[in-house]
Specification:
Helix content is about 40%, strand content about 20%. With about 425 residues, the protein is of the alpha+beta class. The two termini are about 40 Å apart. α8 runs antiparallel to α9 and α10 packs antiparallel against α11. A hairpin with a 5-residue loop joins β9 and β10. The radius of gyration is 26 Å and the shape is globular. The protein contains 15 helices and 16 strands.
């Protein structure tokens, strides 16, 4: 017997019940985002490979699925990768958005508020909550350099997560300028800063001792000084507490922005649990200011994340444009909500049972009458084992069932919850 075929490693098929829930989640997220004045856009799955490799996206650049040039003759002389590859699958939605804005800025409002949802691809090691193909849900504000943009992004994301009933969560915020100042004050060189930040980003996974050991391979004395600074600001702190603890090492502009973001979010949505975490890094190198993540008790990693990337568009257009975004990891959101919700909210789904002796035109007519009454209807022949059939249909996501017998349609009955 041949082995059952399965999807490529790190990717997955989605059953109809999964797709319905995912569509319901996406609809809810987009409804909340649109209420904040964001507009939906779409970008291609493919981008120029040089653009993807020049985006300062940290380790993500190592995980790009690269696409070979069309019509290549692969026989004969050895060819370099640059001769073989010209495109790549997008690994996030931020780089395509920056390219989109650089292309269409003359046609877009200022500032521009974008919603973008769609699949992205990363050739990373699959594990729980991590896939090689996954959906991201992004909102971005382009052309607003003030913290009002961050306040709206955090509030919109928090309301969207609340609307899909994800449960309790915490928003952690920090600022790359604060991290860079700490790295500098500890004694690391400017050239070492990117590598130092990559190591600090491992704190949640490997702890202070292991992080210090890795930092010491760059320089031992600064490593010890930096670990002491980070240890002093671990935990739930306010911007003022971070400033008081770090003293002159904390840049006033970053502290002022963190204070403004937290105060603004709480003023608009008092129920949001938001705190400053001076150890928060995020791996992408393109961040220039505020950064934020959403943590959830059911996850070891973040549920959402983002930050300010004010230099990215200038690399494409030559014009400085402020930009900041927040992205929900949709696969992790789906995994959480699918364990909490039996069926997605939405249109009632009815199965219309009929015998094999029934004229199908009468079945189709009865089904259309139910659709006109705002039901979603699937006609299905009655099985000998009615109990087993109804159990299967309920598991498939149907909410009601009815029967057409002798030309008479029974009132739809709701499945027992």
């Amino acid at each position: 017997m041949s082995q059952r075929p399965v999807p490529p490693r790190g990717m997955r098929d989605l059953l109809p019940t999964d797709v319905r829930l995912r569509m319901a989640l996406l609809t809810t997220l987009q409804r909340v985002y649109e209420s904040y004045g964001f507009d939906q856009i779409e970008t291609p799955a493919l981008e120029e490979i040089d653009r993807l490799l020049d985006s300062e996206a940290g380790d993500n650049e190592k995980l790009i699925y690269k696409v070979m040039r069309r019509g290549l003759d692969l026989t004969g002389a050895h060819k370099t990768e640059s001769e073989l590859v010209d495109l790549g699958l997008r690994y996030d939605l931020t780089v395509p958005l920056a390219r989109f804005y650089a292309t269409h800025s003359a046609l877009l409002p200022k500032p521009f508020r974008a919603i973008q949802t769609g699949p992205v691809w990363r050739a990373e090691r699959p594990q729980k909550g991590r896939y090689r193909q996954f959906v991201q849900c992004d909102i971005d504000v382009i052309g607003d350099a003030g913290t009002d943009a961050e306040v709206d992004l955090v509030c919109a994301t928090a309301e969207a997560l609340r609307a899909v009933e994800v449960g309790e969560f915490t928003v952690r915020v920090n600022d790359r300028r604060l991290l860079q100042a700490l790295v500098k004050s500890a004694g690391f060189s400017f050239e070492d800063t990117p590598a130092v930040l990559v190591i600090i980003d491992k704190l949640d996974k490997i702890g202070f001792e292991s992080v210090e050991a890795e930092l010491s391979q760059i320089s031992a004395e600064p490593a010890s000084a930096l670990i002491k600074q980070l240890a002093a600001v671990v935990g739930s702190l306010t911007a003022d507490e971070v400033a008081e603890t770090l003293g002159n090492a904390a840049p006033s502009t970053a502290i002022a922005d963190l204070r403004s973001i937290c105060a603004g979010v709480v003023a608009v949505l008092p129920w949001v649990n938001i705190r400053v975490d001076a150890t928060l890094v995020r791996g992408q190198g393109y961040y220039t200011g505020s950064i934020f993540e959403v943590e959830h008790d059911d996850l070891s990693g973040s549920l959402a994340g983002g930050g300010r990337y004010d230099k990215m568009i200038a690399k494409l257009s030559g014009v400085d444009v402020a930009a900041v975004g927040f992205s929900i990891g949709f696969e992790r959101l789906f995994d959480i909500v699918s364990q909490r919700a039996a069926t997605p909210n939405g249109q009632a789904r009815v199965v219309l049972l009929y015998s094999d002796e029934t004229d199908y035109i009468s079945v189709a007519t009865a089904a259309q009458g139910l659709r006109n009454a705002n039901f979603s209807v699937r006609p299905e022949q009655s099985a000998k084992n009615r109990t087993s059939q109804l159990t299967r249909l309920e598991r498939a996501g149907f909410t009601h069932w009815t029967e057409l017998r002798n030309g008479s349609l029974n009132e739809p009955q709701q499945f027992a919850q």
